[in-house]
Amino acid sequence: MAKKEVISMIDTFSEFKELKNIDRMTMISVLEDSFRNVIAKLFGSNDNYDVIINPDKGDLEIWRNRTIVEDDELEDENTQISLTAARKIDEDFEVGEDVTDEVFFEDFGRRAILNLRQTLTSKILELQKEGLYNRYKEKIGEIVSGEVYQIWKKEILLLDDEKEELLLPKTEQIPSDFFRKGEHVRAVVERVENKNNNPKIILSRTSPVLLERLLEIEVPEINDGLITIKNIARIPGERAKVAVESYDDRIDPVGACVGMKGSRIHGIVRELRNENIDIINYTPNMSLFIQRALSPAKITSVKLNEEEKRAEVLLRPEEVSLAIGKGGFNIKLASMLTGYTIDVYRDIDDFDEEDIYLDEFRDEIDGWVIDQLKKIGCVTAKNVLAADRDKLIQEADLEEDTVDEILNILRAEFDDESKS
């Protein structure tokens, strides 16, 4: 019975090898280490044992090496054998020679077999965790697919094709993501953690890398290296801007990425929960690049401060809202894409001489508040007074009380002028 258990464990490990892609040499090494570990616990050392394993056939041989000593000098039966006992094996043996005989693991008793089972199981688990960590560490930045197994408040547990666990935290999900158990989800491997030999694979659907990989899948020219993705800026689930470049004048990088009637980009848009994706032709000319990044707004002029990485953009009044975009997404993404802080200003042909630039109110209004107003194109007092109150609150990201205080200060300025 005991022998069958030992062989059964070898067979089980052989099956594990096929499932987990453990190479033959590693498998034999783990088996041998497990047997040696148990022998060392039984006898204090395994140095005088040879363990020979053939996992393909389920064969196991254990050979013990002992030194022949005089009968009255026998001290350790594990490493020594008496001359009388040795000559029962071969009558020509002499003191000082080595005797090698086969021993059978099942003869060590049931406790040894249980110990072996525990040791082998522990080593298998360690191998599995190590293999999982190494496999996914190489996949960082790649798209993987998993089936939704469990949905929690802060994260979703997915299972890959080999039933390994993957985690998709709430913070790495697109805000409009909604998944059901059993549904397949695509995401990129964001990072792999390995605390206390307990690997955790963290996925992301908000990373710009996901959009990059999806474009590589959908656009052969990117995968072939004919088109290069220079940079990506994303506000997940809302909008994204992608700067692309081609070194072949015959290839239109924007057209290639969008595809005929949007055929290539539509699938990506659906995957990203209808995220609006702008494909932009990259140029090293930063002024032109900023103009393209602020599309669909039409820019009058751009003034760069390269040291501070700031750009002052002048637009016609009707273009300001387009440049800023819904929720300020357009200007925010343009800044992310270009690496420049972009300030938007209205281009006013006929400046009202009675109007006053906001900078002149810095003794009454905080400088950061003025900067917020200028970002949405309100450069003068009359620009602010002409703007909708709710627009000032939402687009300039100001508190209601702050906006009301600003309006009162500016109205008072013009009231005082009219009285005088």
Automatic annotation (TrEMBL):
InterPro entries: DNA_repair_Rad51/TF_NusA_a-hlx, KH_dom-like_a/b, KH_NusA_2nd, KH_sf_prok-type, NA-bd_OB-fold, NusA_N_sf, S1_domain, TF_NusA. Residues 141-206 form the S1 motif domain. Its main location: cytoplasm. The keyword Transcription applies. It holds the Pfam family KH_NusA_2nd. Keywords: Cytoplasm, RNA-binding, Transcription, Transcription antitermination, Transcription regulation, Transcription termination. It is found in: Cytoplasm. Monomer. Binds directly to the core enzyme of the DNA-dependent RNA polymerase and to nascent RNA. Participates in both transcription termination and antitermination. NCBIfam families: NusA. Belongs to the NusA family. This is Transcription termination/antitermination protein NusA.
